Amino acid sequence: MAEAERIIGTPDTPGAAGAGPEQPDRSVAPDGPTDAGPGPGPGPGPGPDSGSDPGPGEAPDEAAAPRGGRRIAVLFTVAALAYALDLISKLVVVAKLEHHEPVEIVGDWLRFEAIRNAGAAFGFGEAFTIIFTVIAAAVIVVIARLARKLYSLPWAVALGLLLGGALGNLTDRIFRAPGFLEGAVVDFIAPKHFAVFNLADSAIVCGGILIVLLSFRGLDPDGTVHKD
Prior knowledge:
mainly alpha, 3-stranded antiparallel β-sheet, 3 strands, globular
């Protein structure tokens, strides 16, 4: 019996017949790093960021756009105020002062007196009414075109005064007697020893003086400063 068991072998003995070497269990992954080849490398780097900062030439334009818009708003606000004050004052003067005695404001040094003026500011050039009308219209067109390149606040105020004054007197030229483009402007501010004028004339003169001062300082409408 012992000899038979020795020849046949038993299942319980490691050296039993037919039993091969123990195979490792490959169902469990090893704890350490494997010998597998390297995985896919890092993906391609991120492409250009569409939300990146604008180039050197783009940032100033984006900042300048709202700044220019504010200056244009100032220009037209000043022009609207100057035009409204001139228009209202002339309506009151025509209704209350025309064909009446002058009203003294500061003795005989300053008084309000309604006068129809067919000439330019302060009563000059009454024989060239149509020419002054055309000039006023041209000034309005030039200011409107210049507003697109306006980036200076002082220039916006100056051009607004010019625009409001030109519109005020141009309204009289168009709608008042004696006729279209030949209407007489209503003047009423009468200082002693000086020509009679109105608020539109004052706005034009103040705007012109401001432009001269800005030009002497070298400030251009686009906001740049030049030195001669």
